[in-house]
Amino acid sequence: MMRYRYLIAGALLFSLLHARSVAQVRLPRLVSDSMVLQRNTPVQLWGWASPQEKIRITFRGKQIRTTAGSDGKWSATIPAMSHGGPFTMDIKGKNHIILRDILVGDVWLCAGQSNMVHQMTLHSERYAFDITNANFPEIRHFKIPQTTNLKAPSDDLSAAYWKSATPTDVADFSAVAYFFARNLYQRYHVPVGLINASVGGTPIEAWTSKEGLKDFPDIQTSIRNNETITPPPAPAVPEPADAGLDNHPAWYDPAYTPQHWHPFTLPGYWNDQGVRELNGIVWFRREIDIPATMTDTSAMLRLGRIVDADVVYVNGQKVGNTSYQYPQRRYTLPAGILKPGKNLIVVRITNTAGKGGFIPDKPYYLAAGNDTLDLKGDWLYKVGGVYQAPPPQTTFRETNCPAALHNGMLAPIIPYTIKGALWYQGESNMGNPQEYSRLLPALINDWRNKWHNPALPVLFVQLPGFLEVQYLPSESSWATLRESQRKSGSLPHTAMAIAIDLGEWNDVHPDRKKEVGDRLALLARKMVYGEEQLVASGPLAEKANISDNKVVITFTDTGSGLITSDGLTPGQFAIAGKDGKFVWAQTKLEGNNVIIWSPEVVAPVRVRYAWADNPDNPNLYNREGLPASPFELNIDL
């Protein structure tokens, strides 16, 4: 028996030694075919192999040698090189790896929440020409898969690939990042790599490391707690019984004869049209006459945005569904679904909280060939089912936990050399907008520490207008967070793209992504690429002084001079005395200053501009067409 034990132990030892002897060089997902490497600076590569394995990298006629450590990890530094490509990289250890189609140019990290996520395809109507004519194979995009890690930084990513900006692949690019890269590429003709690390609905803390959040005791406690817990499962949300599906025939079937349906004007919310605080399932239907010219080709059905989830049927056939409220509903109907004469459109909406229905000021139409039929107006509705109690809400989301996305999505790529970073986020921190003035600098400093680059350029987007317009001066979480962003722009090697004029009151994902990307590119051209004379920002408030009982506000970044976009006096300026009550101010432009006053405020102490969730016509610009940032200033007395 003892002899057999020795034999088994010897076999296990031999297997372990053999496994180590044949271990192969392995690369991180990011270091792969079609990657873009950063030009004009040493570039770090890394990976894994067997302990003490010798590795040789050949690239652009140079050889770099390195040896794996006792833990099997290795790294190598490629000397600075000029832009160009495509090139091939040869990596040889006990195995042989060849990477092809490599470019050398500028690499930008693009991070944030949904407005950075939003792909070109989600804005395909506005940017149809840009998608069809995308022929920029030297613009590359690497989308990091959504991954969290509550316990520690991860070593690598799951499956992901570099893709080029062609009509086939550009639809999956971040729209903001693509237009940023295209702007720079068309100017400098240098390859651009975009590393897209973004997840919708996530707070800034999730993208900052544990070390980067060291000055936030409550957050540190949360991180420590999360390191030891087992995340609870998401609560099940069973739908209520639905009379529309239980009926025979079902309510979407053309054979069904509607009874006791009620009129509904589309678009709109059912809470505003006779249904009180209903969480459940509501069906909508409309019969529409279709000319024969629309029936021999595919058609486009546009149903704006719907709160929350929908399933859509045309003539009894399911043509599309969306599981949450934010995407615009754009469904393609294959040829043959429409028929000459009467056609039936049925929409089944499930809503779990808040006002359900069709969001106003969005496109609602059916188009085929050269014909377009407006779908706004008279519809019918009927309630199919009601939640007996409020559906359980998810209270724990790993993607929202501090450091979780940093660990899962950023830590695996941090050795990769980058030119700079783009950041578009803030909506999910609206619950505590004042703290953002500390969290954003913490994120920036954290990334600079992790990349060992104290001057890493970070360009971020100030949140655009959103929600209903308010016509009296009032407090605003959105304005407070924008002010936190504005103050963060004073950090060295940072710049803020002002987007107050690019919002939509009824959509947290406004459509005009090209302008955002172009404004980020302007900032990069000036701060990073050396076009120092370029006017890259809209006016930024500098200080406010009292002169002749009026407040004089001075600005930087006035360019060729201050103007108003409509030729009227500057609007959206408010003024307050020691009581803190703001009133609208009278205003006038005087050179590159704005003069404001109010007979209601004898001794003003604070001023605000465009201080609202969604300010009504903030019209102050510079002559280069860039809007002024919203702000709040104490008056220098």
What does this structure look like?
- The protein has 637 residues and is α+β, with helices and mostly antiparallel strands.
- The protein folds into 4 domains: 84 residues, no CATH class; 273 residues, Rossmann fold, CATH 3.40.50; 144 residues, Sandwich (Jelly Rolls), CATH 2.60.120; 95 residues.
- It contains 10 helices and 36 strands.
- Strand 21 and strand 22 form a beta hairpin.
- Helix 8 runs parallel beside helix 9.
- The longest helix is centred in the N-terminal third of the chain and has 20 residues.
- The protein starts with a helix and ends with a strand.
- The N terminus is likely disordered.
Stretches where pLDDT is under 50 for at least 5 consecutive residues are 1-21
Task: Please report the first level of CATH classification, the CATH class of the largest domain.
Answer: Alpha Beta
Share of β-strand residues: 25-35%
Number of strands: 36
Helix amount: 10-25%
* Number of separate structural domains: 4
Q: What would you call the shape? A: globular
* Gyration radius, rounded: 29 Å
Give the overall pLDDT as a whole number: 94
Second rung of CATH, namely the architecture of the largest domain: 3-Layer(aba) Sandwich
Q: What kind of sheet is the major sheet?
A: 11 strands, mixed
CATH topology of the largest domain: Rossmann fold
The end-to-end span amounts to 94 Å
Number of helices: 10
Fourth-level CATH superfamily of the largest domain: SGNH hydrolase
What is the structural class? alpha+beta
